Amino acid sequence: MSYLPDARVTHIVIHYSATPVERDYSVADIDRMHRKRGFREVGYHYFIRKAGAVETGRDLSQPGRFEMGAHVKGSNPSSIGICFEGGVRKAAPNIGFDSRTPAQIRAMIDLIDKLQERYPGAIVEGHRDMPGAATQCPGFDARAWWDDVLRRRNAPTAQPPARGFWAALLSALRQAFGGRN
Q1: Of 15, 86, 128, 165, whose CA is between 20 and 30 Å from 25?
Q2: Domains observed in the chain
């Protein structure tokens, strides 16, 4: 196991598991798949199930240090990997797409928020957008999606009209219709 200082984290990388959406998978299933490919263990730090459950992969429990993942060749020493279950259909296993469920999206937002508290300034990026990556994973533009999440969250909310406006309107209506003021 290689542990590195938290200060090295520059990216939070989003992946899909490239598993058919028609079947359920767990982090244990992904671990077995990764071991068959020669990995020591699952390469991701987190795995988000279709129902929104977040399962832990690589270790992040040690304060100030993280276990280096195995999810983005060349960028593992500076990134945290989040993988969501799905991304392909059984009938078209080589065509990736954004299969995230609403529960996965909510869980992903909550998880990224927590990770950005620990790793301030970490950029949310899709696997496909990392240097040297030749993949369509995660099936959507993760940076644009996260920027949109932040834009919506930080958008100014409409302020309710001043109470004086409603009082003046009510008074005018009463006068117009002969009511008491």
Answers
A1: 128
A2: 3-176 (3.40.80.10)
